[in-house]
Amino acid sequence: MELEDSRILIDDAANLLEEIEILYARDIEIGEDSPLLRVRIKQFLENINSALEYAAFTAFTEFCADRVKNERANHFERIERNVYFPCKLQKDGDYGFNKYMNERYPYLDQEKPEVIDVFEKYQPFPTRSKWLSNLKDLVNSNKHRQLSKQSHRKSMHINHLLTASGGGIFGVTLEGSGSQPLISFEGEGSQPISFDGSIEYFFTFDEIDQPVLKVLRRIYKSAPLIISDLEKIF
Deepest of 34, 39, 48, 197, by most Cβ within 10 A of its Cβ? Predict the structure, then answer.
């Protein structure tokens, strides 16, 4: 079974990401994220999230639904209604991945355990990437509160900075809001006479305090891998 709907959403997300990068570059120059940028980010996040949800529901329909109808008929609608792509911070426990899969995907461990392996592979357990939990947090925020706002920030990396008095700073990265100076010099002989480094301006998501483009690119890099892994099984 092919995950055609999921693939279409992923492909559309790629187009949205290209537009987001153009809008982002423009808004960085202005120093403020525009409503259009926030809307496109919302659409991108929802596309990716929907692609995962459709794939998860396909797995339930293909490998769980028939047995649930036969063996748990009175509970089928409730179970079906609560099928989502799992996102768990731990493997075991009351709120862990294993319990979630047993409750939301009955018999999947017997019918197609390979699907569980794929789902588990991308969970944001400790020491793993948090792109999936970032996606879920941002989707929920955009859906229930407001379009995700971004803070304008800047980062200065100093390879070396020498002052007239002979002092210096080496191998340091400073970060702060886009409107505030990251470093100031006071006193005789404190003015810099030699500087090697770079300054970068960027937006961060307020909800997760992470750089916008870095998060979006990581989400887009990772989510299609889930669809590809599931296509090999289906």
Answer: 48
